[in-house]
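Module 6 notes. Inverse folding takes a fixed backbone as the condition and produces residue identities as the prediction. Think of it as a translation problem where the source language is geometry and the target language is the twenty amino acids. Below is one complete input and output pair. Work through it position by position during the lab.
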C-alpha cells in the first residue's frame, strides 16, 4: 500500500525492518494510537488542515518507530481508520506504497512501484491515489485499491505534478503545464479537462485543487494568466477568476470564503461566490505558510511567528514567537494546533495561542494527527508515532 514524505519516498517490500520502541521515560508510558482519519493533504478536499473530531493531543513521546531500508525516502502519509498509507521513493527512480498499522507501526503490506511517489497519498474509502514522477517532463497519477491492485493511471504533463483532491468520487488535479482535469475515481475516465494559461508561458498548478460542492479552486502561477480560478465541478467552466496573484501554496475553503496565503507577507479571504476580496492582513515576515482554519480562527505562520486570526475580519487574535517552518501548513487537531519548526514540534491552544508543550522531535514530511498523537518522520527512511502519555 502507499506511504509518503516531504519529497516522497520510494521502494518498500523486500528488506524492510520494523523497530518498535516505547517512550524514552519508562515511568511515563505512552498511549496506543487511536484510529482517526486524515485522508488528504489538508485533511479533506477543502484543505482546512483541521480535524475537529479529535479531542486533544497532550504531552507525550515516541510510541513506536519504524525504519525502512536505508535507501528509502518517505514522501508523505495519510491515515484511514487504523491504517497508515505511506508512499515514497528509493534510489530516485523507483517508488513504493505501504500499509502500516497505526497501533504499533508494523508494515502490513507493500508494493514496489516502477516510478517514485513524490507526494503524500490521497485516500477515499475505495482508492489510494499516488502522485508519481515518470521523467523530467511528465508525471502520472496512479490509482490502487486496498488490495494493492492498480486500477488506472493518468499521465500528467510537466515534472513534479501537485497531488490531486478527491470529492464525491471525482479526482480533481492539475499540472505544471496549466492542464486542469476531473477524473472518475472508479476507472480514471476523463469527466472534463481544460488548459489555463497561454502557449508561451503556459500555466503551473503547484498545489492541490481545493474542492467543495460549489467550486474547484485553482492557484495558477508562472503565466500571464496567473491568479486564482473558481471552476465549475460539473464541467470545468470558469465561474470567476482573480488575475495577478502568484499563489504557490494550498488554498483553504471555510464558511463562505476562500483563504489564501501570498508568497509575500499577506493572508487574504475571498468571497466564495464572487471572488471579491473580503479582507487581507499583512504579516511581519515575507515567507507565509498555507493557512489552517477551525471554528472561526485562522492559524498561519511567517518565518518567526505563529498567528491566530479572526476568520471573519482577519484581525490578529493572538501570536507567539516560535520560529515555525513555513513550508508546512499548521495542523489543527481538536482544540490544539501543531506546527513544525526546524528542530521541534510545537503544540498550542487554537483559542488563545497558549503554548501547551514542545517536543525536540522534527519531521521531514507534513505531520498527520490521529486521536491521541501524530505521525512524523524523524529521518528520511523512518516513520514514527508520537502519542500522549497514559494517564
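Target side of the pair, the amino acids:
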Amino acid at each position: 500500500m502507499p506511504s509518503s514524505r516531504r519529497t516522497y519516498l520510494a521502494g518498500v517490500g523486500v528488506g524492510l525492518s520494523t523497530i518498535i520502541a516505547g517512550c524514552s521515560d519508562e515511568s511515563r508510558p505512552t498511549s496506543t494510537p487511536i484510529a482517526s482519519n486524515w485522508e488528504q493533504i489538508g485533511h479533506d478536499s477543502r484543505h482546512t488542515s483541521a480535524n475537529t473530531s479529535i479531542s486533544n493531543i497532550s504531552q507525550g513521546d515516541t510510541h513506536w518507530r519504524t525504519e525502512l531500508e536505508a535507501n528509502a525516502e518517505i514522501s508523505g502519509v495519510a491515515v484511514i481508520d487504523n491504517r497508515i498509507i505511506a508512499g515514497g521513493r528509493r534510489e530516485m527512480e523507483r517508488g513504493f506504497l505501504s500499509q502500516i498499522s497505526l497501533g504499533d507501526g508494523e508494515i502490513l503490506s507493500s508494493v514496489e512501484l516502477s516510478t517514485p511517489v513524490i507526494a503524500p497519498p490521497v485516500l477515499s474509502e475505495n482508492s489510494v491515489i499516488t502522485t508519481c514522477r515518470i521523467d523530467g517532463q511528465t508525471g502520472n497519477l496512479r490509482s490502487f485499491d486496498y488490495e494493492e491492485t492498480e486500477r488506472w493511471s493518468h499521465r500528467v504533463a510537466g515534472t513534479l505534478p501537485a497531488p490531486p483532491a478527491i470529492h464525491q468520487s471525482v479526482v480533481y488535479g492539475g499540472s505544471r503545464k496549466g492542464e486542469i482535469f476531473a477524473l472518475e475515481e472508479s476507472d480514471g475516465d476523463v469527466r472534463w479537462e481544460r488548459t489555463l494559461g497561454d502557449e508561451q508561458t503556459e500555466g503551473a498548478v503547484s498545489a492541490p485543487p481545493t474542492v467543495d460542492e460549489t467550486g474547484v479552486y485553482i492557484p495558477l502561477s508562472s503565466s500571464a494568466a496567473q491568479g486564482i480560478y473558481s471552476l465549475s465541478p460539473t464541467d470545468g467552466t470558469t465561474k470567476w477568476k482573480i488575475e495577478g496573484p502568484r499563489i504557490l501554496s494550498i488554498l483553504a475553503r471555510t464558511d463562505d470564503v476562500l483563504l489564501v496565503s501570498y508568497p509575500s507577507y499577506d493572508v487574504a479571504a475571498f468571497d466564495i461566490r464572487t471572488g471579491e476580496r473580503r479582507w487581507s492582513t499583512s504579516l511581519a515576515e515575507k515567507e507565509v505558510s498555507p493557512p489552517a482554519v477551525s471554528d472561526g480562527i485562522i492559524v498561519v505562520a511567517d518565518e518567526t511567528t505563529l498567528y491566530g486570526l479572526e476568520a471573519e475580519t482577519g484581525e490578529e487574535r493572538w501570536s507567539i514567537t516560535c520560529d515555525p517552518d513555513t513550508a508546512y501548513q499548521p495542523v489543527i487537531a481538536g482544540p490544539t494546533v501543531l506546527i513544525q519548526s526546524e528542530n521541534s514540534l510545537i503544540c498550542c491552544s487554537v483559542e488563545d495561542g497558549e503554548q501547551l508543550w514542545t517536543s525536540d522531535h522534527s519531521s521531514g514530511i507534513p505531520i498527520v494527527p490521529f486521536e491521541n498523537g501524530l505521525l512524523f518522520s524523524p529521518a528520511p527512511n523512518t516513520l514514527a508515532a508520537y502519542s500522549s502519555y497514559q494517564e
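Reference fact for the lab report: The domain at 121-250 is CATH 2.40.128.630 (Lipocalin).
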